[in-house]
Amino acid sequence: MNRAIRMLGIGALIAFCSAAWAATQPPRQAPTLSVENVKLAKSNLIVRIDPKYPTQAARDGLEGWVMLSYTIDNSGRVTDITVLDASPQRIFDREARRALAKWRYKPTVKGGKPQAVPGVMVLLEFRLGE
C-alpha cells in the first residue's frame, strides 16, 4: 500500500513538473500557410468565431498558436478538425477546435453541385492584449 502511494505521488510529481516546464517554454515561431489555402478560406468564409482565451493561460501570461487542418463539407460546415501543430502544445488546442467547429463557409460549387473541400488549414494565434 505504501509503495503504491509513493508510486502515485511520483507519477503526479512527474506530470506536474512536465506541465510546469511546458508552460515556461517560449512559444515557437508560428509557421506560414500557403497562399491557396488562405485565399480559399478567406473568400468563402461567412461566419468566423474567435476562440476564447483559456483562463489559466491568460493568468499564466502564455501566448501561442495552433495550426489546424479541416474539411469544409458540401453544406459549408467545418468537419474533420485535426491539430497539426501548436506552441505551447495542448494549451490552446481545445479552444481553437471549439471555435473552428462554429465557422461556416459558402459551399464550393463545381459543376452545379456543392463540393466538400478537404485539407484546408488555418493558423489561430493567441495573443494577450498590451
Describe this structure in words.
With 130 residues, the chain is α+β, with helices and mostly antiparallel strands. It has helices at 2-24, 35-44, 55-60, 93-101, and strands spanning 45-47, 64-72, 78-87, 104-105, 108-110, 113-115, 117-126. The chain has one domain (27-126): TonB (TolA/TonB C-terminal domain). The strands form three sheets. A three-stranded antiparallel sheet has the order 3-2-7. A two-stranded antiparallel ribbon has the order 1-4. Helix content is 37%, strand content 31%. It is elongated.
Task: Tell me what the CATH architecture is.
Answer: 2-Layer Sandwich
Report the top-level CATH class: Alpha Beta
CATH third-level topology: TolA/TonB C-terminal domain
Oligomer: single chain
Main sheet: strand order = 3-2-7
What is the H/E string?
A: HHEHEEHEEEE
Beta-strand proportion: 25-35%
The counted number of beta strands is 7
For the sheet with most strands, the description reads:
3 strands, antiparallel
